[in-house]
């Protein structure tokens, strides 16, 4: 008998489309094609020309050499931008990659959607982009599994068996699989899971098992580092050696790091000093080497001076000398880790970890009282004057004051507020402007040093002072200062306020400026920054053929900012750094942001801003006391092209505080802001202006640190643009209002169901409860309290298991229109075409008309209630007061319980006894006049 021919197994890959690709051709688009690699077989699709959402719908077939080892194979899918359609170039631009394992391939006859893949935290070599759930089911005759990488190129992988023998007899076909088309919002949501998830491990749950580790670093995993401390060298004096410009190269495996220039020592000739620590990550195999090499180089000529492990001496200029070093292996808990340099980036200074402190901010109150003896030089007496105050980039003006008296006295009695930062070495400039002329002229000025201004902690009055005004009049080559009046002002630095530098709803600190008013801390907040998974490539290397990301994390709480080291060229960086803050109020928020470092490839004169990858905000009050939370939060950003998931960040949180009920009640019963905010409140508009100035001062201060924290990072962490106009935020706030009122609507619907007898049993029980409350009214409050308690106990089972992160759905980011997003990213002075601005303005007018109508309806209801007794409609007022008289007589003559029972049973009567028309009291109220008819 002839054996049957062997079965030929083929792998069929359907490349369908992609979404939201990165523009690469300089015109906001790209020309993408897909390359699929399986078992050394490479095939590519055609090129979709100039589109960020290409569609291919092409099928690629691959031969399977060993079907028994299918589970061990991998399918690599890469997306490139074709150089022939973007102005040429050496290489095609790399756009993204996804890796699909053989265990995810589906066989013929097993159609269905793929479930969420298992977590890959414990994998020895995690893929750059783990596969995500399928988004579409193909025809029922073939099996498909669709995955989606970070750059959204959907790939359908089919596994098909072919045999040269005749096909078997026909059998009953399997039931058809319904093909479901997804909406735009649903298709964007499959870009990644936008909800936080708990990381299983030693910290999961309460009382989890913990491995022995130093208490200050018990939230992170230990990482092995090779520490090299280069102290100093001696005996290096040669003709080609400049001791003030030498540097040391440290090489270990593939890791090469360069020290800063040496410091020449005056007490010894040919001696240099560095006193610098390097940390080489032994957890990365490419950095761990069997040998350690040290070499000394001349910083001016880059000449090799000598070293150990590479060469003993320089052949041109023989050098003999000694270098003092110390080498040891430790972890990030080592004391030297905070000051160590642990990167091979070109600009290593921008990769170090750092702890920053925000500057101490004060509110400066300038009370302008009056001015006397004002006169203009060579002109008539001024009649309209105002005062302008300047402090750095901040300026404010008083209103105009008129004076017709011969003494030329101008009065204002007006407060101007500024934000000042320590050290208080700036000057406040007071300018007197003459506004009686067409062009305002300067009548005089005075300068006050901030260090000489008195500080106060409460609302006690301070004495005012007179300051002489001077005018600089030029005479030839010099200048003459002349007296031209005096200004009466009261100056003080307010220490009883909290200077807001972040949005009020995400504030991380409410303490006043003066340290004397601080209360003791209530707990300690610990943050362990573990790592990130599946970050998108932020930049390209090697001519655009390879994507890379150099990520670091910034965390901000209170006045303390922390920055992790930069992990160079990694989509799955691991930091494992732990930081601690003191908590003075649990009703505050911790902000964690991830950024891509662009400054490591530029010099100090040409700095590029760091690109934001995403941020997470956690409210401390949502953390239970003395419990460790280890969660993975999605990193989501809103771009002009829509919402995009940039990866995930893994953090560990613990809030340690004494969980005593009296202390908690006392804490929650206190006001959030200091006393001065309530005694002498600041207006909303003025508070927003002061917050913007404070954020700018903080950004300027942190930009002068080493390494600097960019202004773009500080603004993103402080939500400096939270108050700018956005149609998306307007919709989000609208739906928030609807969500708040939803419980009222639900309660009204429940009562309506009771009145309509939809559930007779429930309605009868409500009748019985109503009778009990009428006859025993003292039970009304206890019954309501018991119901609320039972409701809270019932919802305990649905409590959140982990602190919530950023909500894409609540932010309306997944449903935002592209034009709305473009409007959100447009500047205040719009740079768009006039027709686009006109269209957006009309849309804004439409939204404003809806809000205007809603506010008008709410105002009309209140005006109708006022019209009941205001005799605006005499007939209606007569009817109302007459009805009130009748009600009073009935309540005096009939027992109140009988009236309550009759009214309640009438309201709960069966629908067969109801009139479908509105009741008479409602009709009467709707007929009352409002003030809407008086509007022009």
TrEMBL record:
Q: What CDD domains would the database entry show? A: C2C_MCTP_PRT_plant, C2D_MCTP_PRT_plant
C2 domain spans which residues?
A: 1-115, 207-329, 342-467, 506-633
One of the record's GO cellular component terms: membrane
Q: Where in the cell is it found?
A: Membrane
Q: Which PANTHER family match?
A: PHOSPHORIBOSYLANTHRANILATE TRANSFERASE ISOFORM 1, PROTEIN QUIRKY
Q: For the region Disordered, what residue ranges are annotated?
A: 109-128
* Protein name as it appears in the record: C2 domain-containing protein
Q: Quick check: keyword Chaperone in the entry? A: no
Pfam families xref list: C2, PRT_C
- Family, similarity comment: Belongs to the MCTP family.
Q: Which residues cross the membrane?
A: 771-796, 879-908
- Reply yes or no: does the keyword Lyase apply: no
**UniProt keyword terms in alphabetical order:** Membrane, Repeat, Transmembrane, Transmembrane helix
- Its membrane topology, per UniProt? Multi-pass membrane protein
The domain of life is Eukaryota
């Amino acid at each position: 008998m002839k054996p049957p021919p062997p079965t030929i197994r083929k792998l069929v890959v359907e490349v369908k489309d992609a979404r939201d690709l990165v523009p690469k051709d300089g015109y906001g688009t790209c020309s993408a094609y897909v390359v699929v690699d399986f078992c050394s077989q490479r095939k590519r699709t055609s090129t979709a020309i100039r589109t960020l959402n290409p569609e291919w719908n092409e099928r690629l077939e691959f031969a399977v050499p060993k079907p028994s080892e299918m589970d061990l194979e991998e399918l690599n899918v890469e997306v490139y931008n074709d150089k022939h359609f973007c102005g040429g170039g050496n290489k095609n631009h790399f756009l993204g990659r996804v890796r699909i394992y053989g265990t995810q391939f589906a066989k013929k006859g097993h159609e269905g959607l793929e479930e969420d893949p298992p977590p890959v935290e414990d994998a020895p070599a995690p893929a750059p982009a783990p596969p995500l759930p399928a988004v579409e089911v193909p025809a029922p005759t073939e099996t498909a599994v669709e995955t989606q990488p970070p750059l959204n190129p959907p790939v359908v992988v089919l596994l098909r068996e072919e045999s040269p023998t005749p096909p078997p007899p026909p059998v009953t076909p399997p039931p058809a699989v319904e093909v479901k088309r997804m909406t735009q919002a649903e298709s964007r949501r499959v870009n990644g899971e936008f909800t936080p998830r708990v990381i299983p491990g030693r910290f999961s749950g309460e009382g989890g098992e913990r491995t022995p580790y130093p208490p200050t670093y018990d939230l992170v995993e230990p990482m092995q580092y090779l520490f090299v401390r280069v102290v100093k060298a001696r005996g290096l004096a040669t003709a080609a050696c400049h001791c003030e410009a030498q540097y040391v190269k440290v090489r270990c495996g593939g890791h090469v790091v360069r020290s800063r220039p040496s410091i020449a020592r005056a007490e010894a000739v040919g001696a240099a000093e560095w006193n610098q620590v390097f940390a080489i990550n032994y957890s990365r195999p490419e950095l761990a080497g069997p040998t350690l090499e040290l070499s000394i180089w001349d910083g001016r000529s880059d000449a090799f001076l000598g070293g150990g492990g590479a060469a003993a001496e320089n052949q041109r200029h023989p050098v003999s000398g000694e270098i003092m070093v110390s080498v040891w292996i430790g972890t990030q808990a080592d004391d030297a880790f905070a000051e160590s340099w642990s990167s091979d980036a070109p600009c290593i200074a921008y990769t170090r970890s750092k702890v920053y402190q925000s500057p101490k901010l004060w509110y400066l109150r300038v009370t302008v009282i009056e001015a006397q003896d004002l006169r203009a030089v060579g002109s008539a007496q001024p009649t309209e004057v105002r005062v302008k105050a300047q402090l750095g980039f901040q300026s404010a003006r008083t209103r105009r004051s008129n004076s017709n008296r011969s003494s030329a006295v101008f009065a204002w009695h007006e407060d101007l507020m500024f934000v000042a930062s320590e050290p208080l070495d700036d000057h406040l400039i007071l300018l007197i402007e003459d506004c009686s002329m067409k062009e305002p002229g300067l009548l005089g000025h005075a300068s006050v040093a901030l260090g000489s201004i008195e500080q106060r902690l409460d609302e006690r009055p301070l004495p005012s002072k007179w300051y002489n005004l001077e005018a600089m009049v030029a005479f030839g080559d010099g200048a003459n200062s002349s007296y031209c009046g005096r200004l009466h002002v009261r100056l003080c630095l307010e220490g009883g306020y909290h200077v807001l530098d972040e949005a009020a709803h995400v504030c991380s600190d409410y303490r006043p400026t003066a340290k004397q008013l601080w209360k003791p801390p209530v707990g300690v907040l610990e943050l362990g920054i573990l790592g990130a998974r599946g970050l998108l490539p932020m930049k390209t290397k090697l001519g655009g053929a390879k994507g890379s990301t150099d990520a670091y994390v910034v965390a901000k709480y209170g006045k303390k900012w922390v920055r992790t080291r930069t992990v160079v060229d990694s989509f799955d960086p691991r930091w494992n750094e732990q930081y601690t803050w003191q908590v003075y109020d649990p009703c505050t928020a911790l902000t964690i942001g991830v950024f891509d470092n662009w400054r490591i490839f530029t010099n100090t004169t040409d700095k590029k801003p760091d690109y934001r990858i995403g941020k997470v905000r956690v409210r401390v009050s949502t953390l239970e006391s003395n419990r460790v939370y280890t969660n993975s939060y999605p990193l989501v950003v809103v771009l002009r092209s829509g919402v995009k998931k940039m990866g995930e960040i893994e953090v560990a949180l613990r809030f340690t505080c004494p969980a005593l009920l009296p202390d908690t009640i006392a804490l929650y019963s206190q006001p959030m802001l200091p006393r001065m905010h309530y005694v002498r409140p600041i207006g909303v508009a003025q508070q927003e202006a002061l917050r913007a100035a404070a954020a700018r001062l903080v950004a300027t201060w942190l930009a002068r640190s080493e390494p600097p924290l960019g202004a773009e990072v500080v603004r993103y962490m402080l939500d400096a643009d939270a108050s700018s106009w956005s149609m998306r935020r307007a919709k989000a706030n609208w739906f928030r209002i609807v969500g708040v009122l939803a419980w009222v609507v639900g309660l009204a619907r429940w009562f309506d169901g009771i009145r309509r007898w939809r559930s007779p049993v429930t309605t009868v029980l409500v009748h019985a409860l109503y009778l009990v409350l009428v006859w025993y009214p003292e039970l009304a409050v206890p019954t309501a309290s018991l119901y609320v308690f039972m409701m809270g106990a019932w919802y305990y089972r649905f409590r959140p298991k982990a602190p919530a992160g950023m909500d894409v759905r609540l932010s309306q980011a997944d449903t935002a229109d592209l034009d709305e997003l473009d409007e959100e990213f447009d500047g205040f002075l719009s740079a768009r075409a006039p027709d686009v601005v006109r269209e957006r303005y009309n849309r804004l007018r439409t939204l404003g008309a809806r809000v205007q109508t809603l506010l008008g309806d709410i105002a009309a209801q209140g005006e109708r209630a006022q019209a009941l007794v205001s005799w605006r409609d005499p007939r209606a007022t007569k009817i109302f007061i007459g009805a009130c008289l009748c009600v009073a007589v009935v309540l005096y003559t009939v027992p109140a319980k009988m009236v309550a029972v009759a009214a309640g049973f009438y309201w709960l009567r069966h629908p067969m006894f109801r009139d479908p028309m509105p009741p008479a009291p409602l009709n009467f109220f709707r007929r009352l006049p409002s003030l809407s008819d008086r509007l022009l």
